Amino acid sequence: MTPQVNENRTDVIDLENKIRSANLRPTRQRISLAKLLFSEGNRHITAEKLHGEALGKGVKISLATIYNNLHQFTTAGLLREVVVDASKSYFDTNVEPHHHFFHEDRGLLEDISSHRLTVDDIPNLPEGTEISSIDVIVRLTKRK
Amino acid sequence: MTPQVNENRTDVIDLENKIRSANLRPTRQRISLAKLLFSEGNRHITAEKLHGEALGKGVKISLATIYNNLHQFTTAGLLREVVVDASKSYFDTNVEPHHHFFHEDRGLLEDISSHRLTVDDIPNLPEGTEISSIDVIVRLTKRK
DNA sequence: ATAGCTGCAAATGCTTTGCAAGGCC
DNA sequence: GGCCTTGCAAAGCATTTGCAGCTAT
Q1: B95: which residues sit within 8 A by CB, 6+ positions away?
Q2: Residues near chain D strand, CB within 7 A
Q3: Is residue A90 located within the same domain as residue A102?
């Protein structure tokens, strides 16, 4: 019979490989963050909240390290930064092209798969430029 | 012949009325800001830049007052805040529905008239919510 | 061994706030 | 006169940075 241990082991090894693929060393802190970020479907999270979650699970890690790693993951293409709020940064574990609902009252992001919302009739671009990305944010409030 | 003075005078009176319509007193500082913001077509500007322009024209005004007034104008519907950059706020003098090009390298915003770009196939909204606004940002970089 | 990482605390940059003095109605 | 505004400086927040000590390879 296969020991349980192996299944957990495999997950961690996947995460380590993911981290290695970004040319980063799989440190204790990075593995913990990767576990929080990539273990359970798409997430949209702020540095502060991630720090809280880590501490809550008994992972010792400083906020500075959270920031450093969120940016390193983003640069490596493992995360995408979403600008929706002037006062804080959100990081999205879904790096495929897609758009967002933003629940303004709760400060919460939700994916809109890109084939469910399309942008049409994009006008001619200004001379000498090309598109880096297109961000669509559908801002939501509670229905009155 | 109509003296030149009257034409300038009229402009200032329009601005004063605009300020009054927002239930704000037309102070020296507000009139100066309104002149900078609303005299020459649509603008997209940060608090810092507006402060610089004011000082450059010899208008004595503090940065705190700039921020206060940008927010008061925004609340009154004279301006719209555009979130494109995590680190600073842009204010847009065009309050009609429309979208934006954002020149990432220059930190510059440009309007896309809304009939030149449309968003289609918006999926069903989450239960109990309604759309507050839809922001489309086409991020541009220099063409290589 | 050594290049890369982490944690802390200090520094930064933008924005907000408290409060006394000044200005509009 | 009374309330709204302003300016200054201080405070606030999210984020970044410098650097000494630690860690993965």
Answers
A1: B77, B78, B79, B80
A2: A 20, 25-28, 46-48, 63-64, 67-68, 71, 87-89; B 23-25, 27, 29-30, 60-62, 64-65, 68-69, 86
A3: no
**Tokens, residue A138:** 């559908």
Q: What's the half-sphere exposure (Cβ side, CA atoms, 13 Å) at B134?
A: 20
pLDDT tens per residue, range A2-19: 444 444 556 888 999 999
Closest CA to A124 of B117, B44, B136: B117
pTM equals: 0.88
Cα distances (Å, whole numbers) of residue B16 to B25, B26, B68, B135: 8, 5, 18, 31
Domain that holds residue A140: 97-144
Where residue B45 falls among pLDDT bands split at 50, 70, 90? very high
CATH number, domain at B11?
A: 1.10.10.10
Residues B91 and B104 in one domain: no
Q: In terms of CA atoms, which chain A residue is nearest residue B103?
A: A129
